[in-house]
């Protein structure tokens, strides 16, 4: 039985983009649900926040070919895969969600599929996204929500002897509050169960290694140790089920909201200040609806 497919560079775990795209990902349906809710017009500027291999970006460009799309991801291999898939149809930005973004024109829409739960601070996440969006811009996202991966987490605890959870699986009430604080008007914030059963042990191990266990594997010094850990987690699972619970969000950037203070608070959480960051300014046709930042 073959082991999971992993990629390391100088003992630093990175996403294996090639393996990721070969897996039976429920992410494809999650992406279709997100793209179907986007309200885009020709010429709009959109951001795919945590674009991965560009699968969802390709779908949105198929439906809205006249938009200007920027694909953002922290993983170099994922961005390279997205660039291979999309070519010059999109712009590309390597950046970490939750940190202040480089100076860019404000976006008319932000979409995200299966990315936000990797960001430990959702207050900072929503604040930095709001700062990069024009007033009235749309946010449509999918990520892991409260209760997700209980089977996997129990198996990890059995293997490690520790109750450690590297993800931010937020509930709907907390998320709605965080959105409002960051300057969004929530329209829909809901949890939706979506279970995935993988009875093939080899496929389950590949899935665990490539999609779920990266936060644990990146701290392991050798591939052999990573493979052993993935197998032990698989054997400890009560059943071969990835118990996904999706947190789905549709919101609008408020027409009048001062996000600068919220962003400064978020940046301070990471030991940064906004003093040296060039933040985007509103589009000229939005000036009447934007307050003066102090």
Please give the structural blueprint.
Elements: E1 7-9, E2 12-14, H1 17-22, H2 27-36, E3 45-49, H3 55-63, E4 68-73, H4 76-86, E5 90-94, E6 107-113, H5 122-131, E7 133-144, H6 150-160, H7 172-182, E8 184-197, H8 201-212, H9 214-217, H10 223-236, E9 241-253, H11 260-269
Parallel strand pairs: 3-4, 3-6, 4-5, 6-7
Antiparallel strand pairs: 1-2, 7-9, 8-9
Average pLDDT:
83
Tell me what the CATH architecture of the domain at 25-150 and 162-198 and 242-273 is: 3-Layer(aba) Sandwich
Q: Which range best describes the helical content: under 10%, 10-25%, 25-40%, 40-55%, 55-70% or over 70%?
A: 25-40%
Q: Which quaternary structure do these chains form?
A: single chain
**Share of residues in strands:** 15-25%
Distance between the termini: 61 Å
What form results from the Cα inertia axes? globular
Largest sheet, order of strands side by side?
5-4-3-6-7-9-8
Q: Class of the domain at 25-150 and 162-198 and 242-273 in CATH?
A: Alpha Beta
CATH topology name of the domain at 25-150 and 162-198 and 242-273: Rossmann fold
User: Which blocks of ≥5 consecutive residues have pLDDT under 50?
Assistant: 1-15, 272-294
Number of strands: 9
Radius of gyration: 19 Å
Largest sheet: 7 strands, mixed
CATH superfamily of the domain at 25-150 and 162-198 and 242-273: Vaccinia Virus protein VP39
Q: What structural class do helix, strand and pairing data support?
A: alpha/beta
Number of helices: 11
Secondary-structure element sequence?
Answer: EEHHEHEHEEHEHHEHHHEH
